[in-house]
Amino acid sequence: MNDELLASIEREVLGWPGVSKETGRGGPGQGGFWVPPFTVYRFGRRALGHIHDTGVADLTFPREIHDELISGGRAKPHGAGFASVVSYHIRELEDVPEVVELFRMNYERVKASAERRRKA
To answer: Closest Cα to residue 86, out of 76, 71, 101?
Structure first.
């Protein structure tokens, strides 16, 4: 993956309050396939999504949003078929705003959930 594209996404996502990142080495995944190294972005303990070194972003959404993103052509189903996970292939600069928007959608959703729990 183009390091410049990842840096653009990372600058934006890490600029949101409460977001941090962790890196993973990759390795054997469920079903015996290889998981490429990745960077996961979190709000607190909850993952917003991750981006593999290959340039594929994977994000988990509630089923309804997942289905809307796929039917609207904004994302693809996860390559390994994980339920509720969408994938977005980052290939060029024009892909950056769309993948940032997907992370923003998850950020707003997870942040609102944390605020509701805090008030309860």
So the answer is: 76
pLDDT in tens, 76-114: 999 888 889 999 999 999 999 999 999 999 999 999 998
Q: Which residues pair with 22 in a beta bridge?
A: 40
**36 to 10, 48, 53, 74, 103: CA distances (angstroms):** 18, 18, 6, 23, 20
How many Å separate Cα 11 from the centre of its chain?
Answer: 14
**Residue whose pair of structure tokens reads 């993952």 in the numeric block:** 47
CB 70 within 8 A of CB 64: no
Answer yes or no: are the C-beta atoms of 117 and 111 closer than 8 Å.
no
The CATH code that applies to domain 3-119 is 3.90.1150
Q: Cα dist. 22→38, 62, 67, 73, 89 in Å?
A: 9, 23, 28, 29, 20
| pLDDT tens per residue, range 10-38 | 999 999 999 999 998 877 677 777 778 89
